[in-house]
Amino acid sequence: MVGNRYLNALWALTLSTLLPAEDLGEMWGSAKEEAKYYPIVNIPIPPEVPMRTGSFEILPDGRLAVGTRRGDIYFVKGAFDSPPTPDYHLFASGQDEIFGLAWKNGAMTATQFGEVTRISDTDGDGVADRYDTLSNNWGYAEGHEFAFGSKHDPEGNIWVALGLSGSYKSHNLFRGWAVKVTPDGKMIPVCSGLRSPGGVGPNAEGVMFSIESQGPWNGCCSLKHLKQGGFLGHPASYNWYPFVPGMDTPAVEPNTPSRLQVEKKRVKELVPPAVRFPYIKMGRSISGFRLNQTGGKFGPFENQIFLGDYTLSIILRATTEEINGVWQGACYPFREGLASGIMHVEFSPQGQLIAGGFTTNRQWPVRGTEPFALQRIDWTGLMPFEIKEINIAKDGFLINFTKPVDPSIAARTEVYNITTYTHKFSAGYGSPEVDQTTAKVTKAIPSADGLSVNVHLEKIIEGHIHDFDLTTMKSMEGGTLLHTKAYYTVNEIPKN
Questions:
Q1: Which CATH code for domain 30-377?
Q2: Is the peptide bond preceding residue 83 cis, with omega within 30 degrees of 0?
Q3: Which residues of the chain have a pLDDT value below 50?
Q4: What sections of 185-286 are H helices per DSSP?
Q5: Is the dihedral of CA 399, 404, 406, 411 positive or negative?
Q6: If you ran DSSP here, which 8-state letter would residue 231 be given?
Q7: Is 322 in a helix, a strand, or coil?
Q8: DSSP states along 332-373
Q9: Is the peptide bond before 257 cis (omega within 30 degrees of 0)?
Q10: How far apart are CA 436 and CA 425, in angstroms?
Q11: What pLDDT shows up at residue 22?
C-alpha cells in the first residue's frame, strides 16, 4: 500500500512537471492555436452544486441533464447559451455513481454501480418520485466495480459495461462482462473479457463499443467492439460462462506474455481492440465518448467519435472501419486544456461539445486543477488544417485532410514519417511499446482536389499501431497542420 502511494505521488509530480496544463508538446503533436478554432467555454456552477459529472443526456425541451458521481441528477437550463446562463434544478438524488443517462418516453434511465434504474416524475412537479429497478442481475461489492451505461439502442436496450473486482479479478457475477438490459428489464450477457471500462456507445454504423483502460491484459487504453459472444481480452471473467445459456466457455485462455495477433489465432473468440490509444501520447485514462452527428455544426468531423480522458484532461477523436469482418481504425488529437478530469462528453442540439468531470482523492492524478467542472467546446466556423481521417488500403493508407494539401509537398515520400509498434499482451499491468519498425513509403499520390493522399508502403504490419507524423505537410495555402500526429491500429489488411 505504501509503495502504491509513493508511485502515485511520483507520477503526479512527473505529470505536473513534464506536461503543463496547456501543452502536451511533441507527444500530442499540437500547435498552439486550438482555441482559434475550438474555444473552451466555462459553464458556471453555483457553489452549492457539487457537479462531479459522470454522464449527460439532452432532454426533449433542450435542457442538459447531468448525472453525478454523488448520485444526483440535475437539469440545467441555459448551458448552451452564449454566454452560458445556467439554471440548475435537482431532479433526483440518492443514487450511486451515475455513469449513464438516457431519456425515453417521459422517464430517465440511469446506469449506476449496482443497477439500471428507470426514474420518473409521476405528479409533474419537476422532481422524481418513482424509482424502478430495471435490472440488477450482476454482482456488486466494492468501489472498482463501476458500471457504465449507453443510451437506448434502436430496440430500446441499455448496454452496460461492468468493471472487474479490484481491477484484477471477477469476484462477483458478470464482472468484466458487457450486458444489455431490455426495456422490460431482461438482462442479456453479450461478451466477456473487459477490465475497467469507461464508456459505452455506438459508432456511425450503430455498432456498440466500449472504452477500456490500460492495465492487465491491456497494454494501453482502447476502443473495443462489444461483439455478441466475443472475448475482449481479460480472462478473469471466464468463470461466468456457465450462467449464460447457449454460450460456451472459450476452450483456452490466452498465453502470457504474448501478442494479440498471435493469441487471436489461438483463442477464436478473442476480439482485438478496434482502436488502441498509445499511452500518454493519446490518453492515460480514456472515458466517456459520443458520436458526432451534428450535421456539420461542429466542423469537419461528422460521424466521428469524440472521447474524453480523465487523467490528461483532453478530448480525442477516433474513426472506425470494418476490414475482413473485424473493426479497426485510428485516433487523433483534438483539444487539450480542460479544467478537470473528463468523465463524459455530449453534443448539444446547437452542435457544441459538452465536457464534464472531476478530480478525486483516490490517488488518481489529473492535469486539470479544478475539483469539478462543466465546460463547452464551440466551433468558431474557421476550418482547421487537420488530418481528417485515415483509412487502410491493401498496400498502404488513404490520408484525408480538411483542407487541400500542397501537391508538390504531398507527393514527397519523405513527408510521411511512419513508425510501427505493438504492445505485449500479458497479465502484467500495461506495456511498453515493443517490436518497433520504420515503415518504408514507396509512393505518395495526392488526389486531384488535394483533400486526400494515397500513401503506398512497402509493407503494412498486421497487429501494429502505425504512428503517423506529418510535421512537414503543408496546405495549399502554406499552412501547417494543427495536429501533426495520428495513430492507426491494424488488425486486418484488406484482401482486395
A1: 2.120.10.30
A2: yes
A3: 1-22
A4: 260-266
A5: positive
A6: B
A7: strand
A8: EEEE---SS-EEEEEE-TTSPEEEEEE--SSS---SS-SSEE
A9: yes
A10: 15
A11: 45
**Residue owning grid cell 469507461:** 198
Say what the pLDDT of residue 369 is. Answer: 85
Can you read off the three cell numbers belonging to residue 187? 438482462
- String of b and e for 397-431 (b: at least 16 CB within 10 Å)? bebbbbbbbbeebbeeeebbbbebbbbbbbbeebb
**What stretch of H or E contains 17?**
helix 2-18
DSSP-assigned beta bridge partners for residue 392: 397
If you write DSSP's letter for every residue of 101-135 in order, what string do you get?
EEEETTEEEEEETTEEEEEE-SSSSSS--EEEEEE
Contacting residues for 148 by C-beta, under 8 A, at least 6 apart = 99, 100, 111, 160, 161, 163, 197, 198, 199, 200, 210, 288
Q: What is the pLDDT of residue 23?
A: 58
- The letter for the amino acid at 490 is V
Per-residue pLDDT of 112-153, as tens digits, reads 999 999 999 999 999 999 999 999 999 998 888 999 999 999
Residue intervals in the chain for CATH 2.120.10.30: 30-377
pTM beyond 0.70: the answer is: yes
Element (H, E) at 410: helix 407-410
User: Residues of CATH 2.60.40.1220 domain(s) within the chain?
Assistant: 387-489
Tell me if 402 sits within 8 A of 383, measured CB to CB. Answer: yes
Question: To which residue does cell 465518448 refer?
Answer: 289
Q: Hey, which residues does 117 pair with through a beta bridge?
A: 110, 133
| Greatest pairwise CA separation for the chain in angstroms | 69
Question: Looking up cell 461539445, which residue turns up?
Answer: 353
Architecture of domain 387-489: Sandwich (2.60)
Q: Is 2 exposed, middle or buried (0-12, 13-18, 19+ CB in 10 A)?
A: exposed
In the chain, the N- to C-terminal Cα span, in Å, equals: 53
